[in-house]
Amino acid sequence: VLCVQVALRIRPLREAEVEEGAALSARRVGDQRVTLMDPSEDPDDILRANRSREKTFLFDMVFDHTATQEEVYVSTTKSLIEGVISGYNATIFAYGPTGTGKTYTMLGTDSEPGIYVRALDDLFKGLGASAEEMDYTVSMSYLEIYNEVIRDLLNPSSGFLDLREDSRGRIQIAGITEVSTTNAQEIMELLMKGNKQRTQEPTAANRVSSRSHAVLQVTVTQKSRRKETSEEMWIGKLFMVDLAGSERAAQTQNRGKRMKEGAHINRSLLALGNCINALSEKGGSRTQFVNFRDSKLTRLLKDSLGGNSRTVMIAHISPASSSFEESRMTLIYAYRAKNIKTQV
């Protein structure tokens, strides 16, 4: 039984935040701690003098603005890849408010690629090393969940897709494009292209806010080349999920359509949160019902959360005092996820 690993990444302060005079409210202390300072409390307030303005949270890893993409990848994801090659499932989530760097962590830029590309690079290297004994195929699909509908990012013209369950209870997406490739560069191009198809809209918090959850699913199938064991197959799945920003409408100044969209985003994140809460309490005495059917997102990730998967969540926050409330909620949410146990 393994616990969900939770890492935290604190992005650098933005110029706009510095100009507004935002102070630093989140600080990394050592490798595993983060302290969050409440900016709203007046130090001269006698009634609250004894109440600590600082809250400390403990995670498996904490990164601040000095951490490179490589460091984040090596500490969170690299060790999962060998597991996928041996037929285990693995899941990596990026979670946090709008504008805290989730897409940067997962997709990255051409010069600073994120987890997607680094993970696939290592996957192909690992598979290449055992290619003499094993035949392998790698297929991937890239989809988004937007307003509770599923769109194929590699073939956006295919319209909305259905989630179906097969006879073994595995969740399938009917009609999704699966691309087979052995080249990480090709994949990067596909992902960049797919990402341009993602639903992005400017909000007050972020100019290119991802308004949908993007899920990259990589399936590795291996067969032994030796005749006598040729019946055996290893299938490992790797899910990499860039969640839409969790946010309060006040912060993003959303109105009308954006507001509705935000409600949908928050609905699926709430469903995810409910599942996380139920799963984290499952270790206790009462048998908790976990409702995965509340949203498409939780149905798709059923295995990665409560089932047969090694799971890592990378929570993201902004260090600015103006984002204190968002950061606090994110830290509480992520801290809960640490109690979830999965069976691999």
Automatic annotation (TrEMBL):
Cellular-component GO terms for this entry: cilium; microtubule
Main location per the UniProt record: other
Binding annotation for ATP: 96-103
Cytoplasm keyword on record: yes
Entry keywords, A to Z: ATP-binding, Cell projection, Cilium, Coiled coil, Cytoplasm, Cytoskeleton, Microtubule, Motor protein, Nucleotide-binding
An MF annotation (GO) of this entry: microtubule binding
Pfam families in the cross-refs: Kinesin
Single GO biological process annotation from the record: microtubule-based movement
Name used for this protein in its record: Kinesin-like protein
Gene: Kif19
